[in-house]
Specification:
By secondary structure, the protein is α/β, with parallel strands linked by helices. It has two domains: 188 residues, 3-Layer(aba) Sandwich (Rossmann fold); 154 residues, no CATH class. 57% of the residues lie in helices and 7% in strands. Helix 8 links the parallel strand 5 and strand 6. Helix 6 runs parallel beside helix 8, helix 13 runs antiparallel to helix 14 and helix 14 packs antiparallel against helix 15. The chain is elongated. The N and C termini lie far apart (81 Å).
Length: 350
């Protein structure tokens, strides 16, 4: 019975040491030791990633041990993105377990599953490369649920004889999941994308757009300097800032509350309201500046918001592609016409 096997595979207490068979095996297999505790360096690395200072940070693919696992200890699968690996090992605190890390090119589980690097072929290859059948006696591996789109459990079982069990969405639920006989509650299967989840992604979005914002500001300054040198430049830069704030900060925060399914339309609407409010507040009357601003800046926010689809739970890969095909041409058109109109306003001072 499977239930009997699962019971036997529950993690042993931390005082149990590796068996003699395991010691003999580890002499010919590269097994790396890690800990469940996260240090200052780990937290600093997480901060850098959250701030977008470092986009990709990875650990070496292979097999790792947490505590003192033996041949009956559980095997958990991870991407080699450092935050994925660290969250998993930290969730295994107090357990003796194996972590098998796939080569996902430094990309997290969810994104890598969509790209195919956290996939069936890589999982089969890694099981073979680390000689997992020599490390553990059982035939069960626990794959994160967010990796399920990239993994065919049937094909993995057929190629390696290992049974794939999909764990919970969040690593912190793993202990409860294991203790419940690998049964997940409804909450464990539900992917949340609450306000906190959305806010932590904002710094990366700002970092991505920052250099383009600086370039756009310099371009407008250049155009204005060699044009009429009008006071419109201040209004243009303020509206540029509003567009960036709308796309990078307001769009993710207000995501569930703004109408439209398409992210680009959400960003466009939020920015349009902000731009119209500023035009009214500043009393702008230049037809070229007003028309250009209404086209260019909301379109810019739409593009920024469209980039956010890759970090959300609201869309699928096919949905993102569909939205890009439908709205990118309009965004490009609005950006082009809006830029021309604002340029005319700055050059001629009208």
């Amino acid at each position: 019975m499977i239930t009997n096997k699962l019971t036997n595979l529950k993690p042993k207490c931390s005082c149990s040491g590796p068996s003699s068979t395991l010691l003999n095996t580890s002499m010919s297999i590269n097994i790396q030791q890690t800990t469940a505790e996260l240090g200052i360096v780990d937290h600093f690395t997480h901060l850098r990633l959250r701030l977008g200072i470092s986009r990709y940070s990875k650990v070496d693919p292979g097999i790792y041990k947490v505590g003192n696992p033996d041949q009956d200890s559980l095997v958990f699968i991870s991407a080699n993105y450092v935050m994925s690996f660290n969250k998993l090992r930290n969730a295994l605190k107090g357990m003796n377990a194996w972590i098998m890390v796939l080569d996902t090119k430094g990309i997290n589980v969810w994104c890598a599953a969509g790209k195919g690097t956290f996939g069936t072929n890589e999982l089969i290859k890694r099981i073979t490369d680390v000689k997992l059948s020599e490390i553990v006696k059982h035939k069960i591996i626990i794959v994160p649920q967010l990796g399920a789109p990239g993994v065919s459990a049937h094909e993995v079982g057929k190629a390696t004889n290992f049974k794939v069990i999909y764990g919970p969405v969040r690593a912190e639920d793993l202990k409860t999941f294991v203790n419940n006989g690998f049964k997940a509650t409804k909450e464990m299967r539900q992917v949340n994308f609450n306000l906190t989840d959305r806010i932590v992604l904002i710094p990366v979005e700002i970092k991505m757009i920052l250099k383009y914002a600086i370039a756009a500001s310099l371009l407008f300054y250049f155009i204005n300097h060699f044009g009429s040198n009008s006071n419109f430049i201040n209004d243009v830069l303020i509206m540029l800032l509003l567009a960036i704030v709308s796309g990078t900060i307001l769009s993710p925060i207000l995501l569930p509350f703004v109408p439209f399914r398409a992210f680009s339309l959400k960003g466009f609407l939020i920015s349009l309201i902000a731009i119209l409010a500023y035009i009214a507040y500043a009393g702008l009357t230049s037809p070229y500046l007003v028309a250009g601003s209404i086209l260019l800046f909301p379109a810019l926010s739409a593009f920024i918001s469209l980039n956010f689809t890759g970090a959300s739970t609201y869309t699928s890969v096919s949905g993102v592609r569909k939205e890009m095909r439908r709205y990118i041409p309009f965004i490009i058109g609005f950006l082009t016409v809006g830029f021309i109109l604002i340029t005319i306003s700055l050059v001629r001072g009208i």
